[in-house]
Specification:
2 copies of one chain form a homodimer. By secondary structure, chain A is an alpha+beta fold. Chain A has 19 helices and 12 strands.
Chain lengths: 604, 604
Amino acid sequence: MAQMLADRRDVDFILHGQLKVEQLSAHKAFGDFNKKTIDLIVSEARALSLKELLPAHGIGDRVGVRYQDNNVFVPPEFHGIYEKLSNGQWIAPSDDARWGGQELPLVVTQAAYNYLFAANYPACAYATLTHGAGKLVEVFGTDKQKNLYLKKMYSGQWSGTMLLTEPEAGSDVGALTTMAEKNEDGTYSLTGNKIFITAGEHDMTENIIHPVLARIKGAPEGARGISLFLVPKYHVNADGSLGERNDIFCIGVEKKMGIHGSATCSMTLGTSGQCIGTLLGEENKGMAAMFVMMNEARLGVGMQGFGCASASYLNALNYARLRIQGRSIVADPKETNGVSIIQHPDVRQMLMTMKVYTEGMRSLLYYTAFLEDLAKISDAPEEKERLHDMIDILIPIAKGYVTDRSFDVCNLGIQVFGGYGYTCEFPQEQLLRDCRITQIYEGTNGIQAMDLLGRKLSMKNGKLFKELMSEIKREIGAAASIVSLQALSAELATAIDMLDEVTGFLFKNAVADASKGAAYAHATLYMEALGDVIMAWMLLWRARAASQALDAGAIKQDILFYEGQIQGVRFFIKRFLPVITGKLFAIKNLDSAPVMMNDKSFGV
Amino acid sequence: MAQMLADRRDVDFILHGQLKVEQLSAHKAFGDFNKKTIDLIVSEARALSLKELLPAHGIGDRVGVRYQDNNVFVPPEFHGIYEKLSNGQWIAPSDDARWGGQELPLVVTQAAYNYLFAANYPACAYATLTHGAGKLVEVFGTDKQKNLYLKKMYSGQWSGTMLLTEPEAGSDVGALTTMAEKNEDGTYSLTGNKIFITAGEHDMTENIIHPVLARIKGAPEGARGISLFLVPKYHVNADGSLGERNDIFCIGVEKKMGIHGSATCSMTLGTSGQCIGTLLGEENKGMAAMFVMMNEARLGVGMQGFGCASASYLNALNYARLRIQGRSIVADPKETNGVSIIQHPDVRQMLMTMKVYTEGMRSLLYYTAFLEDLAKISDAPEEKERLHDMIDILIPIAKGYVTDRSFDVCNLGIQVFGGYGYTCEFPQEQLLRDCRITQIYEGTNGIQAMDLLGRKLSMKNGKLFKELMSEIKREIGAAASIVSLQALSAELATAIDMLDEVTGFLFKNAVADASKGAAYAHATLYMEALGDVIMAWMLLWRARAASQALDAGAIKQDILFYEGQIQGVRFFIKRFLPVITGKLFAIKNLDSAPVMMNDKSFGV
């Protein structure tokens, strides 16, 4: 299975054929990253994934984490992985070199993380949480906080977490009750309980740095009264050495459907009244700080879910080529020899569905990261703003839609294996179980849909959506000039017009008191429809790039790959576009039954 | 959670309001089963499910089965369950009283099994496999075989299995290689290996009776050369006492995604050349015998998957009512109190989706069983044939479509719980894992879709489909006479016309050599569309029955239930019918990309 985890040709095609990321190297910020260097980095991530991370994927699931007396023990193999990720400088690959980052373009980091997550994202969680916590310190920390913590976090010497959720404050963060009281020395004493804390405790690093959301005594209720604190497991002396144990402890780990190797901890703060932290950023600005991190975090979760899909597809493809079962329905009835199941039309349509979603989602995730890179190097404020707008509207799709579809891909990935797919002998069922949480954490996909409808569509009077539409239309225009894509482009253009109309209709209803409830009951369906259209856009873009490569005279071994791109968009348009249109019609119906119905009519 | 597992009011509504099953009691075969008796039986199943089966659901998952030296040990609690199912005569509730059956209408057995499966279908598998094996003995056994085995199987004293799958013969049963050689005394010596054998070995009964598919030496290749044999774990003496141990052994159990309490065994036959069995039925007619059992077996699997959905929906509904989180988006913005999450439109649309599928599928499964009852008591050969035709065309939907949608319902059932749904603290994630196998075993859902397109549509020159259409149209006509359902009926009528046209189109392409592959690549999509239409039919029927009950003056506590039926069909028609139409358009596109594409274009 030479191409397991992620199809390298597809990864390279997106980087160089679709996005042409080498253009970044024209700017001094990315001057070092020519095509050769980028390819080397991807190769390194791929090798690390195959050699170190993948072999521990099933082990992490079977062994899981063990909790004992406030300690959490991860599978032994995870120690080596964390060390490799640290030493390979994979914790902060795109961050500031001053603090140990590598300043890679984010799009290259995405490609690298495609491999790492496809191999074993539960094992990577310890590193990615560390990065997220470090980023908070980088953006909101004082010089002192940065000097004390940041390099040791970005290098992996100390790990990080994010203490947000409480038993009664999940989607509604504003309901949290963890309290902070200011001490005379300017530090804060925290008391409270947090749950679902990934990597909250483990035995891989000498210290763990916890950003904690809490409410300062006397602060307003709700989200407006939340502040962010930095609470280390061990206090850190001025010289950087470890001090006393802080009063923050893990009191248990969750038993879960999947990601068994990722410790999901219940944490208690200040049971002895001695949990001391420092303010990170400003008082009562904790939620705002969270929002700054949200795009990165949600894009990361999208990639986690997608990593599972990426691996599941290639496993299924490989299995379908090797597994002999049944005769071909199109062969001579007298033929008695079995064929590999990839010959069966029903298996092929499953694989084709997996292929188009996998490729479309990969393009979208890389593209969203690429937009960040473009924004970073852009000197034109308007263009910078446009790029950030694009990112903002794409994020709920990159998280919500992508993890939903990744789950579907993983599910087909089981089905292609038949009964074997249900056994633990193959990775398919674990990939589905691991994938499932990505639809929930970092804002459930329902929250993503509401973010799209309630925030993103309304920002700047609908400018974000308009910018997205004109990007898609630009691609439709470009693809229409290619004979083999003309008719397909026209079909997509029709759908786009309808999407445009339905978006206006739904938004109008979402801001009117009388229809608000019914509109929000269609938020998820809308996210699905918009996501589908974005898939069509990505696939059309890919097919155009492939057509152009074919016209330019592709080498023999690439021709079938490029042809697969043209078949892919055709399949998507012919098979899924009518269904998307159906979803748009359903939104236009704006049925209010779910919101109007009496609660008791659901069942008594 | 008084209504957990299955909403009793809905169960009663289908039995008495929709299907009016009491009409069966007019016939002497079911003379004992008036409304009161039926309700008592359902109550008994419900009580047994809540008291005995449900408490062992999580235990079965955590403890699983243990294999050691050819023995399999099930969780201790399963012993009590098997005993209760045996003593309560739940193994053969609808079978011939001569052999220990209870001769209940099958529709009542369905209602009972709705509860049993919703509580713990993996624990029930030992009983249901026993019934299936017993049925083979009843239908194909000689008097001697029946006298030796049958009563002890239907009473649960001995259990049963079905040895069909082999490592290289899964969906393609005809490829099996287990051999049988006739001995001088008329018995057969079997040699071979079987896998994925549910209940193949366990420690709950003194004997296990294995029907085995094998090929008699010299028999034709493929499906035409397969015979069925009866192979007991312990030989049975003429007086019914146990004799020698037979040479059939379990050599391992699968580790699986779910149904951990259900033993999935690898079996080896004749390693010492001493596996002796008797022919069951005629030589080379083993596949035909399987087909006789298939409708019952597939309907049973549909109910297994549905049982998970049935429980998951009520758990989610209950959780959504109790869980306080977030403010209402339609409330005064100054309101700071949290609301139960059932107040959130996105949660409501999830619950509504779960509700309509759960209710529609429950109706379909009960109805399909009811058709069997009607056929049993019908004296008119034409009507009998029509009823069997209806069953034949509904079976792929009742198995394939129902388990697919049940999985979707279980998936929403996790999402409603948010992060908690991913933990093992709640049953939601286990229900999804348990449900997942039902899409695979007893013929994968791809096989169901091909059975629908390739066999059921072509049988009797399309008579089955025509009969189904006229049943649906009859309901549309009836519902159209009710004011509140008029417009909805008309919308469904339009979709039906399109379904009719697309069915003809797809079938025509499926029998033409040039388009066969492309047509079969749409078999699954077609099954989905037909299943959706059948859901709409069931929901319309239910809404009509509810409207009539309301008009007749329903008692207060029923009014909200009935109103929920009318809202339900409206929701389904407004929200899902446009998508169904989209799927039909997609079928009309009959894109051939998946079948035409070069294998290598899937990825290299």
